[in-house]
Amino acid sequence: MAEKGKTIHLEVITPDAAVLQEDVEFVLVRALDGDLGIMPNHAPLIASLRIAPLFYDKNGQRKCLSVAAGFLEINDNVMTVISPAAELPRAIDVKRAQSAKERAEKRLNDNHGDIDVERAKLAMQRALCRLHVANEYTE
Ligand code: ATP
């Protein structure tokens, strides 16, 4: 467990990997109902997440990773994020995200009623989120 009072232990887990395991001072996530700022020793909580950057502060430095929905659980000063896909900035393939964005754009623009619009919009959100995280953050 993280040191009481100063940090919360943040774990981000996907089907492929444990993407992040850090003691951090603050976490900002986008839940279905809106943004949630999480301080150490937060009350127990479960919430669903949107496709969005997850921000966290480590040693006073703001860091970020891309999280493609999922959910979070907070218990006993441990925050666990379980997501179908999450990437640190350095793990993001910008070319791949750009191609995914262009594919989704084309699908949405050429839509003659025969595409799954919701699926294309979600693909677009994932691509935009990855591009934002990769362009704004380095680590
Ligand atoms: P694509 O069409 O390029 O596969 P996608 O949004 O459909 O994009 P996901 O289904 O969200 O991809 O992710 C599938 C796997 O590929 C996950 O493990 C995810 O972390 C990884 N991934 C997807 N896009 C990227 C990227 N641009 N850079 C690094 N990893 C990626």
Describe the structure.
Helix content is 26%, strand content 43%. With 139 residues, it is an alpha+beta fold. Strands 1, 2, 3, 4, 5, 6, 7 and 8 form an eight-stranded mixed sheet that branches. The protein is elongated and about 55 Å long. The mean pLDDT is 94.
What does the average pLDDT come to?
94
**Straight-line distance between termini:** 25 Å
Total count of strands: 8
Helix/sheet category: alpha+beta
What's the gyration radius in Å? Answer: 16 Å
Unreliable spans: none
Shape: elongated
What does the main sheet amount to?
8 strands, mixed
Number of helices: 2
Secondary structure: elements and pairs:
Elements: E1 8-13, E2 18-24, E3 26-31, E4 34-38, E5 45-58, E6 61-75, E7 78-82, E8 86-87, H1 94-109, H2 117-136
Parallel strand pairs: 1-7
Antiparallel strand pairs: 1-2, 3-4, 3-5, 5-6, 6-7, 6-8
Helix pairs in contact: 1-2
This protein binds adenosine-5'-triphosphate.
Adenosine-5'-triphosphate binds at residues 16, 68, 85, 87, 91-93, 96-97, 100, 123, 126, 130.
